[in-house]
Amino acid sequence: ANQDEALAVNIFSTNVANLFGGEGVQAAPAQEGAQQEGVQPAPAQGGISSPINVTTAIDANASLTKIEDAIRMVTDQRANLGAFQNRLESVKASTDYAIENLKASYAQIKDAIMTDEIVASTTNSILTQSAMAMI
């Protein structure tokens, strides 16, 4: 069901230096023939490129914007990871359900085979007893 689908997540170190130094989260390259759903490339800068400065009110306000952008980046990444986790949990639940159904089907098949063998044995026993009675 999931053939040719790729799920790749690259997470760079999420510390202040990376958030404010230009390193961001980037989408992993897709495998050949696979589709990437819901994976968006990192922005051109990848992070916040200039340092934080709070020496003046104007610089502090600009820094607040940078901090809000960094928080938004982290929040977006957490949302993406949560979506991936939900998808994996859903696939696991479906797989567990399929395994349970296969085990139940296998047990029913084994019961049917056993029933066939009992019927064959009983038929042979009746035929043998009938033949002995005729002799």
Automatic annotation (TrEMBL):
Broad class of the protein's primary localization: other
Compartments reported by the entry: Bacterial flagellum
GO MF: structural molecule activity
Keywords: Bacterial flagellum, Cell projection, Cilium, Flagellum
Annotated Gene Ontology cellular component terms: bacterial-type flagellum
Lineage top rank: taxon: Bacteria
One Pfam assignment: Flagellin_C
Presence of the UniProt keyword Cytoplasm in the record: no
Gene3D superfamilies to which the protein is assigned, alphabetical: f41 fragment of flagellin, N-terminal domain
Domain annotation Flagellin C-terminal: ranges: 64-134
Keyword Plastid: no
PANTHER family registered for this protein in UniProt: FLAGELLIN
UniProt record similarity statement: Belongs to the bacterial flagellin family.
Full protein name: Flagellin
